[in-house]
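Need Ribosomal RNA methyltransferase FtsJ domain-containing protein's 3D structure for a figure. Predict it.
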Amino acid sequence: MYKSFFHRLFAIPWLFFAVFACCLGSTATSDSTTALDEATVYPTKPSTRASHVSSPSDQNLSTEAIISIVALVSAVIIVPIVSKCATHWAVKRYRQSRISPTTIVSGIASQGQDRPRTALSTSSASLVNIEANVADSIQLLPLAHLGHPSSSRPVIIAELSDQLQDGSIHMTNQHESPSLQDTIYELEGTGVASGTGDTGRTRLVMLTGSFDSTHYFGNYTEVEPSLTFNTQGWQNPAGDQFFKNQRKRADDPNDRQASYFFNMMKRIAQELHSATDVFSIKTLDNVQPSILDWCMAPGGFLSAAMYHNRSARCRAFSLPAEDGGYKVQLSSKARITVDFLDLNLLAADMGANVIPPTHPEAASFLPSQLSPGDMFDLVICDGQSLRTHQRPQYREILESPRLALVQLALGLEHIRPGGKMIILMHRIESWRCVWLFHVFRKFSTVRVFKPMRDHAKRSSFYLVASNIQPRHKHAEEAVRMWKQAWRAATFGTEEAYRRLTQQPQAIIEEVLDSFGPEFINLATNVWETQAAALAQAPFIQTQSISFS
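Structure prediction for Ribosomal RNA methyltransferase FtsJ domain-containing protein:
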């Protein structure tokens, strides 16, 4: 967004220069042509212009025309080069001048050299538990950047309660949690939802990008353990109302809002493509490009993918509108095969060929929808559980992880070698995200993208995996494990699902040791983009923090 603005800004003077050169060249050429024409038409008439053609000044006129043409060509070449360089410089300076992510934090003691500090040490553990006051609710607090003044390494702080009574959780801030099961899933993903401790005690859980293993960062994690993390505005009722209004518009949009949402998703998709080239599909000769889109409606991403691949065939799935799904906004569906169904009912595709007769939805599960020969060059995995989806109550707790597992398992299983996947994710600091990045990097090239404008205030971002090798042993193992986890969540108990998906501490430490620094590099831009957007949110009043 900023690059295009500065590009246009710096291109204006050079375009004026090009127009001026063009006019000058046209004038000189016109004068020369006129003189030559008159000399030809009136060969015997003494003519000032005719004599002027053969005079030495005529050579100067021709020189002017040549100079004008050279200037015009130079302008055409120089415009994009100089504009691009100036844009790069301006964007860099602009980003440096923007409100630092640290300025949205209030109630944090100065980290100056004259103040006492306490380094957090965890013996390579992923969490730092600090006893705090009794709390009756779980409160997920947004991102802040702390740490060493010379470092951009983030520290994420969340305040949690150990009182998970009767399996229920009460949220005081539900800005980004569309439903209860999403909240529980994200908490489980960070490894902090099922923590132990004295009843009624709250843990202040401090996570860095590498989950606070101090041998990575040394004094980068120096903070005062008694601090209270208060992000100004997020506890403001105006913030609650802001996101509540957004959820309401998303759940029940009118025609204008639905059209806006569709166009917004197209903008995000185009921005994603500009940053990652994800929609550029290269296939062998005579092989038609193919695209698979889970949860397609309203169709913004698929529209962008089809625009960049005019000959591609597309397969899409979407929740029926009568069941709470979005309406499809695509104007042309000639190259698309769409199946309107509930992805969490794809039992046969997920390896569940025998359905327990006592299951509440035993009669609703579907036969296989994808054959072994259905292979795709691009798979879009951006489906989320919808608040408007009419589903049985028993599904609420694990609906989101099941939906993610279906898209990941079947998407990776049906990707062509060298293909690409786009995966919508949330809270990049969560263990779930770290683990998924770690898995994909074993058999693909992993990149991260977060829009600068749309959804910038939210924790959402996109994992872009390219050059995927689906026959790699780690890829095949991932598909097998994801299908097994889905079957446990669908037909088993919550406890069985947790046992299957929880990672041993030794595995966590191994991943952090091998992947922590690389993960920081991937995640930093996501954190900075979100924090900068929050600093400019209408419901937040920023307050500077002294780091002198």
